[in-house]
Amino acid sequence: MTGNRATGLRFAVVGAGMAGILAAIKLRERGEVFTVFEKAERIGGTWRENRYPGLTCDVPAHAYTYSFEPYPEWQAYYATGAEIQVYFEKVVDKYGIRPSIRFGAEVTGLVWDDASATWTLTLASGEVQVFDVVIVASGVLHHPRVPDLPGLDRFEGAAFHTARWDDSAPIDGAKVGLIGCGSTGVQIVTAINARVDRLVHFQRSPQWIMPVPYFTYSEEERAAFRADPALIDAIRFSDEYIGNVRRFTDAITDIDGPQMKAIEEYCLLNLENSVKDPVLKEKLRPNYRAACKRLIYSWSYYDAVQQPSVFVETGRIAEIEPHGVRMADGTVHAIDTLVLATGFHADRFIRPAGVTGQNGLTLDAFWARRPTAHYAITLPGFPNLFMLNGPTGPVGNFSLIDIAERQWTYIDQLVDVLRRGEGRAVAVTPAAHAAYEERRIAAAKTTIFGSGCSSWYLDAEGVPASWPWSYDAFDAAMAKPKFEEYAVLGT
Ligand SMILES: Cc1cc2nc3c(=O)[nH]c(=O)nc-3n(C[C@H](O)[C@H](O)[C@H](O)COP(=O)(O)OP(=O)(O)OC[C@H]3O[C@@H](n4cnc5c(N)ncnc54)[C@H](O)[C@@H]3O)c2cc1C
């Protein structure tokens, strides 16, 4: 590679969810030239795709907002998915980025060329464009995981994944089967138990439930937020939220420490005090440590699951029949509507798009063992490619908006190297990334996520695919990249 490029960088952003919108706003602020490619016809990602009853963000609404765009209009302490979608639509219009988004534009290929220090981006339509920098904001919880249940294709009622909610499917007065007991499954139980004739919740492993407060904001409170945004900051930066995030990450990383003990006691007391029927209580008692799986925050699940309309089925599903679900013990549950709350392939990221970096290195090859990225953002051999919410980033019960904003701070400083004309490309060195991954894996195994349960946090080898250190350590890492870990190419 030869020559410097001080200005005029061309940016591609893949995805117009929360992270891609963030990138677009930040690039516009910097006066950069960019295009956002979104395969769907609307912005919103997660919040566009997930419309199931009860969908609620379990981060307090005022913390699940961009720090630069507080939102006085939230209706309650926790926002619904539909409200969040409205928020992102408003933000996109306010910041004037809609014209920069290409909808119906699925990125299917990215190929790096050392000689020109560019990425050639291919769309599903066959259209090809060339960019200097690519921001991958294609999401984590995006590719639905549909279980391989015998007979599922012969089911004659409505059957669908929660991210593909079928509004025409019978719920009111119907016999509903719900497979899956993560946050989504739990939220659906709370939302539909009063509507159904019968809800059979097929539960492979029960969840620890952290009781949390829920309240709505009055019109007077919203008016006060509008008049004085400092009131919003007081919630967002309160000890209740930021303190909780710190305590939670302390608990995750110091699994025998006081914060984890407090979480365990709180969840156990919630189970003991809330569930009356001893048989149901034992069905709902997890046999792994609290927060090993993503901890479920709920103010109403235990009430909901004790309603007479709900039956928790803990047996093994043998097969799906045309009108029901047959268990291994021979029991058959008649079902009209079968809901699959079975999660996502959390290891796909931008794939199935083909990404080829330096020397023909493909993303599939680089990720053959496990998806990794340096500080969840950059990959050796893939210059000028930056991920938001990439593999091994922080996971847990805190705002991914906050995480993405901090990641942008890190990315922006690496792009500054190009803006200053110090080179045409930046890439983390293989040695720096290997050393980082070694430390990360060793630490990740000691976190609560590695304490012996199965969860979507674990990679194929059972290693938690997450940031394994404290929130403050993440904050510090994002504040300034270690530039010595990067090679500047084309100087
Ligand atoms: C049910 C559910 C509940 C959640 N609850 C919370 C919560 O309580 N708190 C929290 O912090 N997070 C939560 N999350 C995580 C949530 O995904 C993130 O908070 C956030 O929305 C992620 O934004 P994103 O932009 O990174 O990804 P996404 O929202 O997934 O957006 C990615 C976008 O990229 C597009 N795209 C993907 N591939 C391509 C391609 N090849 N070409 C073009 N476009 C592409 C997609 O269509 C999508 O619009 C939840 C997720 C789910 C599924």
Q: Which helices and strands, and how do they pair?
A:
Blueprint: E1 10-14, H1 18-29, E2 33-38, H2 46-49, H3 81-94, E3 101-103, E4 107-113, E5 118-123, E6 128-131, E7 133-136, E8 158-161, E9 175-179, H4 183-192, E10 198-202, E11 209-211, H5 219-227, H6 230-236, H7 239-253, H8 258-274, H9 278-283, E12 296-298, H10 301-305, E13 310-313, E14 317-321, E15 324-327, E16 332-334, E17 337-340, E18 354-356, H11 363-366, E19 385-387, H12 400-419, E20 425-428, H13 430-445, H14 471-479, E21 486-489
Parallel strand pairs: 1-2, 1-7, 2-3, 4-18, 7-19, 8-17, 9-10, 9-17, 10-13, 11-12
Antiparallel strand pairs: 4-5, 5-6, 14-15, 15-16, 20-21
Helix pairs in contact: 1-12, 7-8, 12-14
The structure holds flavin-adenine dinucleotide (FAD).
Which descriptors apply to this entry?
18% strand; disordered N terminus; globular; 491 residues; FAD/NAD(P)-binding domain; binds flavin-adenine dinucleotide; alpha/beta; five-stranded parallel beta sheet
Describe the structure.
The protein has 491 residues and is α/β, with parallel strands linked by helices. Helices cover 30% and strands 18% of the residues. It is built from 14 helices and 21 strands. Helix 1 runs parallel beside helix 12 and helix 7 crosses helix 8. Flavin-adenine dinucleotide binds next to helix 1 and strand 2. The site of flavin-adenine dinucleotide has 32 residues, from helix 1 and strand 2.
